[in-house]
Amino acid sequence: MIDEGLLAYLEGYITEKRKDTFHKVLNERTRHFTVVLEDIYQPHNASAVVRSCDIFGVQDVYAIENKVTNRVSRHVAKGSQKWLDIHRYKEDGDNTKLCIEDLQAKGYQIIGTTPHTDSCILPDFDVTKKSAFVFGAEKGGISDYMKQEADGFLKIPMVGFTESLNISVAAAITLQNVTTRLKRTDINWQLSEEEKKVLYFKWIKNTIKNPEKLIKYYYSELT
Hints:
There is one protein chain. By secondary structure, this protein is an alpha/beta fold. It has helices at 4-11, 16-26, 43-55, 74-77, 95-105, 144-149, 167-182, 193-207, 211-222; strands at 33-38, 60-64, 85-89, 109-113, 120-121, 131-135, 152-155. Helix 4 links the parallel strand 2 (60-64) and strand 3 (85-89). Helix 3 packs parallel to helix 7 (167-182). The protein is elongated. The relative contact order is 0.19.
C-alpha cells in the first residue's frame, strides 16, 4: 500500500507539469501486452526495444538471460528504462522455462515472433488476447524450447528480397500495430487505479534527487 501522506510530501518536489505528464502517460500504459527478450546480446538492440515499449505504452519487459546478460545502453534507450518494469531471469539454467511459467500464471499467451510455417501475420493477430511477444537472439531467433512451448507464432509480412528484420525494428512495428488496434476495441486494457498509483509513486522517486533521504526525513518528522 502507498502511504498517501508520503506521496503528497514527495509530490511537493516535482512540478505540476511533471505530475500532469505522469498521469497522461499512465492513462496510456498497458499490461495487456508485454515483451520478452530471449538472450539478446547486442545492447543497442535491447535498448531500442525498451525504448519502443515506453513509446507504445507497454509497461513490462521480461529479459531471459541464459547465455548473455541483457544490457541497456543509456544512449539508445534515452532514459526509457526508468519508466518501465524490467523483469530479469538469470539465476537458473532454465530461465526460459521459469519466465514462461510466470507469464502463463499472469494469464499471458506466449507468442513467438518468427517466420514459422504456422505463423499468423501481424494484421490478422487477435489483439483481444493477453499476449507476451517473444523476440529471440539476433541470429538464431527464439530458442527451440520457446518454439515448443509457445501458444502461437507471429510474423510481419515482407515482400522484398530480405527475409528478416532487425529485432528492434520488428518489435517497434509489432507494438505499434497491436497497441493501436487494441485501443479501438472495448477491451479493458488500461492499468488498474492501484497499479497507476504504484507506478506514479515509483516515477516520482525516480525523478527527484535523494528520495530515500527525503523519505527518511518525512518519517522522522512524524515521530
